[in-house]
Amino acid sequence: MKRVLIVLLTFCFFATTAFAYTDVNSSHVYATAIDYITGEGIVKGYEDGTFKPDAFINRAEFTKILVEAKYGSDPSEFADDCFSDVANDVWYSSYVCYAKNEGIISGYPDGSFGPANNINLAEASKILVNTFELEKVQAVGTAWYSQYTETLGGLKIIPTSFEYIDDKVARGEMAEMIWRIMTDRSDLPSVDAAKLTSAPCKTMGEDLPSNVDMDKVRQTWLDWYNDERSALGLHDYALDDQLNMTATAWSKISRDRGYMDHKRPGQTSYYDFYMILDWFKNLGIEFENSAFSENIAWEMYYCGADEADCTQEMIDSIKKGFNFFMSEKGGSYTAHYDSIISSRYNIIGLGIAVDDAANKYYLTVHYAKAISNDPMQICE
């Protein structure tokens, strides 16, 4: 009986460790890679037991994981203000600053890094090649990323799930590329990197004065949210271009009709979840587990067209909308605040439309766990 018991216990041990996540089993296309990087201690997954292989990964997370994959530790001595948007007290600062110091990353021309931005294949390729010190090929293409993507393509590192050079990288794809590099797998199907092109795109449709920097406005809004979430021990939200687009679309519709609510055409109840879901589908957006939400607000706003820069005026004005959402904290009605601190969502989008005649802005925030279909890329 003792020998039988030992066999059973041994079987159970291997059964639970072979696939450590509830959303990854032996049939998953990236199961081997995910199992490998978990076993190597490169990625731990989420507290709920999932890996979220289809969720996009942002630039800060990707850089941290790559530095740990190569060096295996937290390079804390490099925790310094190396980019304008990377403070030395955030969880990823030491990894990002170490990567910059080692020439793995360089950031954007304006001195920022964009840590919350979802990383795309072109950006990820540079970090992968530089981190693992892969020998670069003589590229056919002339774009800044050609040498990196073609190096990976020649080594058969890029999974066939990628269709365009600016496709965002999912966590499962990240695992696959790391696994292929670290185990010298060059016998698997890979895309021809020299033939990768930019995706056809959809215009964001921004309708703001030209003297408002909407990227800065969105980042400020995201920072307000993540400050509150961090204080509560919650994961950060990330901005998503698809949700920025849909939020902008709803703000413009609201501005054009002169009032703001959640009612889509034909909707009678104030908030009809399924009709709003159909509205998103008509824009080509579908959500993982139908997990999404929408918050709206409007406020007075004025900054003359002759002003050189109205970005701060816009930020000051939308802060009133944010403060309104936050004012629900501890109250009897907390729908807007609950969206700010929800553990159900991972990505958000912010859209604003201005009514110059009425000196008013219309603001929409969209929240989602993840976009489940292949999203349309957004034009600059």
Structure write-up:
The protein has 380 residues and is of the alpha/beta class. The chain contains 12 helices and 6 strands. It has a 4-stranded mixed β-sheet with strand order 2-4-5-3. The chain has a two-stranded parallel sheet with strand order 1-6. A hairpin with a 4-residue loop joins strand 4 and strand 5. The radius of gyration is 23 Å and the shape is globular.
Write the layout of secondary structure elements.
Blueprint: H1 2-18, H2 31-39, H3 59-71, H4 93-101, H5 121-131, H6 146-154, H7 171-182, E1 201-202, H8 214-231, E2 238-239, H9 241-257, H10 273-282, E3 292-300, H11 311-326, H12 335-340, E4 347-355, E5 360-368, E6 377-378
Parallel strand pairs: 1-6, 2-4
Antiparallel strand pairs: 3-5, 4-5
Helix pairs in contact: 2-7, 3-4, 3-5, 5-6, 8-11
Defining traits:
single chain, 380 residues, alpha/beta, 12 helices, globular, disordered N terminus
